[in-house]
């Protein structure tokens, strides 16, 4: 697990760019012109990937098929025609948070997913499963942190907590074991829009009938759209890195787990009659 994370960091910005620049410096010792070209190219790529407009362009295809659920489809009667449970994927942890007495809690991204899951639960009445383990040997599995947040921040309680998974593939496989015992096959999958293609692949291949419930779409503020998006920024580099890392994840899942792109039924969400 650690090796995969390190490889992901080195193969996506800024890691890969720094590696190329280092190669350029080493090459420059013997072949100055070639080394300068490599270094200059690295800086140019870094500049381009640091633009918010570039990051948005790279992440847009990942979100292209992640359509928000229409509010009209989120009544108890309409929802039961599509799904029997809501599955919320973990998104990391905030480690040793000082304001909570150095206890671990959910990350901002995980809290966003829980917020949308709470919204869905309140609209549909469907039970919730939270999924996430302790991939780096942490004391508390991520799903239990999510359960705690769900209870304290939203006054709701998940029906199931899957605590053994370390990645999206394991989220799907382990959730299938829990929900199959409850007779649940049709699910809403809650995750960020950019993560939805890989999540859908994994859960469909695990045997679920999936209704994507994307949230956290990548949008640009007015300032970024009108000019600031063409200036380099840490936000722009983070968007680009996220998009490229997720694309790398799609390639890795297809190779490692023999997961094929999910083909979902071409149907509109049910609406209340």
The low-confidence runs, each spanning 5 or more residues with pLDDT under 50, are: 267-273
End-to-end distance: 47 Å
CATH topology of the largest domain: Rossmann fold
Pattern of helices and strands: HHHHHEEEHEHEHEHEHH
Structural class: alpha/beta
- Relative strand content: 5-15%
Number of helices: 11
CATH architecture of the largest domain: 3-Layer(aba) Sandwich
Strand order of the largest sheet: 5-4-1-6-7
Radius of gyration: 21 Å
How can the largest sheet be summarized?
A: 5 strands, parallel
The CATH class assignment of the largest domain is: Alpha Beta
Number of domains: 2
At the fourth CATH level, what is the homologous superfamily of the largest domain?
HUPs
- Average pLDDT for all residues: 90
Summarize the structure in words.
The chain folds into two domains: 1-67 and 222-260, no CATH class; 69-214, HUPs (Rossmann fold, 3-Layer(aba) Sandwich). The relative contact order is 0.17. It has helices at residues 2-10, 15-28, 32-49, 52-63, 76-80, 108-124, 142-154, 168-181, 196-205, 222-225, 234-256, and strands at residues 85-89, 93-97, 103-106, 128-131, 160-162, 186-192, 209-215. It contains eleven helices and seven strands. The protein is 51% helix and 13% strand. β2 and β3 (103-106) form a beta hairpin. The model is unreliable at 267-273 (pLDDT under 50). The chain is elongated. The protein is of the alpha/beta class and 273 residues long. Strands 5-4-1-6-7 form a five-stranded parallel sheet. A two-stranded antiparallel sheet has the order 2-3.
């Amino acid at each position: 697990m650690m090796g995969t994370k390190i490889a992901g960091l080195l193969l996506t910005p800024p890691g890969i760019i720094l590696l190329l620049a280092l190669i350029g410096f080493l090459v420059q010792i013997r072949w100055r012109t070639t080394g300068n070209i490599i270094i200059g190219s690295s800086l140019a790529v870094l500049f381009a990937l640091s633009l918010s407009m570039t990051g948005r362009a790279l992440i847009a295809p990942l979100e292209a098929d992640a359509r928000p659920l229409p509010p009209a489809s989120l009544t108890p009667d309409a929802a039961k025609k599509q799904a029997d449970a809501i599955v919320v994927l973990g998104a990391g942890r905030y480690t040793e948070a000082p304001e909570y007495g150095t206890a671990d809690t959910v990350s901002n991204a995980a809290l966003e997913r829980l917020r949308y899951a709470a919204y869905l639960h309140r609209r549909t009445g469907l039970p919730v499963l939270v999924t996430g383990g302790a991939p780096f040997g942490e004391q508390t599995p991520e799903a239990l942190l999510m359960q705690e947040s769900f209870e304290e921040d939203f006054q709701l309680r998940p029906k199931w907590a899957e605590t053994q998974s370390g990645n999206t593939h394991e989220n799907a496989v382990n959730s299938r074991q829990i929900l199959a015992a409850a007779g649940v096959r049709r699910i809403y999958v809650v995750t960020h829009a950019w993560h939805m293609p890989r999540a859908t692949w994994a859960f469909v291949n695990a045997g679920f009938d999936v209704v994507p419930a994307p949230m956290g779409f990548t949008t640009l503020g007015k300032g970024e759209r009108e000019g600031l998006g063409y200036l380099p920024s840490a936000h722009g580099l983070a968007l680009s890195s996220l998009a490229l890392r997720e694309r790398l994840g799609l390639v890795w899942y297809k190779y490692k787990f023999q997961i094929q792109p999910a083909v979902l039924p071409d149907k509109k969400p049910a609406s209340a009659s």
